[in-house]
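Homework help board

Subject: predicted structure for assignment chain

Our instructor gave us this sequence and asked us to write out the predicted structure in C-alpha cell form, then describe one feature. I got the C-alpha cells but I'm not sure how to describe them. Can anyone check?
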Amino acid sequence: MLVRNMESTTTLAARFAQSVTPTALRSYLAEFIATFLLVFAVVGSSMSARKMMPDAAAEPSSLIVVAIANAFALSSTIYIAADASGGHVNPAVTFGLAIGGHISIPTALFYWVAQMIAATFACLVLKVIVVGQHVPTHAIAEEMTGFGASILEGIMSFGLVYTIYVAADPRRGPLGSIGPIIIGLMAGANVLATGPFTGGSMNPACSFGSAVVAGTFKNQAAYWVGPLIGAAIAGLLYDNVVFPPQACDSSRGVSEGVGV
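My C-alpha cell output:
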C-alpha cells in the first residue's frame, strides 16, 4: 500500500512537472490569446447587434449575426492555436479531452485558468471601450427551467465536442483547415437552434467572463453542469464505443487516439 501511494505521488508530481515546462507555458499563452479573441468576437457581435437593432432580442437577424460570429471566430481561433495548445478555447472541450485521457488533469486545470481569465479580460475590454452599453450575459428564456437549459447546453456541447473528436482524430488524416471550419459550423448551427432559449453558449468560460464583468451570476450553474457532462459523454462515447483506439484502419495501419 505504501509503495502504491508513493508511486501515485510520484506520478502526480511528474504530471505537474510536465505542466509547467516552457512548452506547456507557451500552450497556456496560446490558449489565453485564442480564448480572448473568441470571446471578444462573440460578445462583441452581440453588442454590435444591439447597437444596430435596439430591440435585438426580437430581431431574427440579430440571432444570425451572433451565430455567424460564433462560427467564424471559433473556426479562426482553433486554427491559430491548434499547433500550440490544441485550440480548446473552452473549458468543456478541455474537460472532455481530459476525461478521454488526451490531456493531463494538471494541464487541464491550467487551461481552465487561462480560458476564464482570457474571457473575463475580453469582456472587461469591451465594457471599457463601449461605454454606452452593458456587457450582455447568457440568460435563460422565461419558458425554460434551469434544468431544461442545462440539458440544452449539454446537448450542444456534446455535438461540439464530438465534432472536435472526429475532426481532430489523426486516424482520419491531418486536421488541416477543413477541421476548424466544420467545428465552427457546428457551433453556429447550435446558436441558431438554441440562441433564443439559452443564448447558445456551449462555453462556460464565455458565460463566466460576461457574468463577472456584468456582476450577475444568475443561472450560471446551467452553463457549467450541462456543457461539462455533455463534453464528457462525447469523449467517452467516441473513444470507447464509436471509434476506440483498437479499431485500426487497415488501409492506413494507424491506431492512435485523438490528438487535438
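Reply (TA_rk): Your C-alpha cells look well-formed. For the description, you could write something like this. Confidence is low (pLDDT under 50) at residues 248-260. That's the kind of observation they're looking for.
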